[in-house]
Write a structure and sequence with these properties.
six-stranded antiparallel beta sheet, alpha+beta, two-stranded antiparallel ribbon, elongated, disordered C terminus, Beta-Lactamase, 5 helices
């Protein structure tokens, strides 16, 4: 159902008729239950299992990262996810995955330096911070490129720590198609 604020949510409807002695329906009784959180949790669990299955069956890193980006795209409404990997010498970020981004955008951000004031990802990697967020007033390399592709805000940049290693291997970036603050789903603590 669509709420008054325009947001769609899943509901479960159950109805039962009240019948008179002849079996004619005289009234309907019903309930509706908001099951949106349950549906989202089920979808997240299914997607997590699919990604774990990719890892367990030895799929390539590119396929796994692509699946992870698609999962984030689905969970974070009106957002696009990409992953940049830290190159072995630790000086720049390389393209990992970004299936919803145009090829030209991914090519433009491939090789972005790690350093102060070089975009959300490069700066966050330089500072070794877990996250950063950009506003429309900040002028950095990344947003200038993003604006050319219809992306209006870097919603959140999350550093990734793989379970099997303690070193940082990359940056998960979540961009929005409209200016806004990070949603709870896009927060680094979610």
């Amino acid at each position: 159902m669509r709420r008054a604020d325009g947001v769609y949510r899943w509901f479960l409807f159950r109805v039962e008729p009240l019948r008179d002695p002849q079996g004619t329906i005289v009234k309907w009784y019903g309930t509706n239950t908001d099951i949106d959180d349950r549906k989202r949790a089920e979808a997240l669990l299914a997607a997590e299992n699919q990604i774990l299955e990719m890892v367990a069956t030895g799929r390539s890193l590119a396929v796994i990262l692509d699946g992870l980006c698609r999962l984030v795209d689905t969970l974070c409404d009106k957002s696009l996810a990409s992953i940049l990997l830290i190159d072995p010498n630790g000086r720049c970020l390389r393209r990992g995955a970004g299936p919803s981004f145009p090829e030209a955008f991914m090519a433009a951000v491939d090789g972005v330096e790690i350093g102060p004031c070089v975009g959300s990802c490069g700066t966050a990697a330089y500072r070794k911070s877990k996250s950063s967020s950009l506003t429309s007033r900040q002028i950095h390399y990344g947003p200038i490129i993003a604006l050319g592709f219809g992306i209006r805000t870097a919603v959140w940049v999350v550093h990734t720590d793989p379970v099997f290693r303690r070193q940082r291997i990359g940056r998960l970036r979540i961009y929005g198609r409209e200016p806004r603050s990070p949603t709870p789903a896009a927060s680094p603590h979610h």
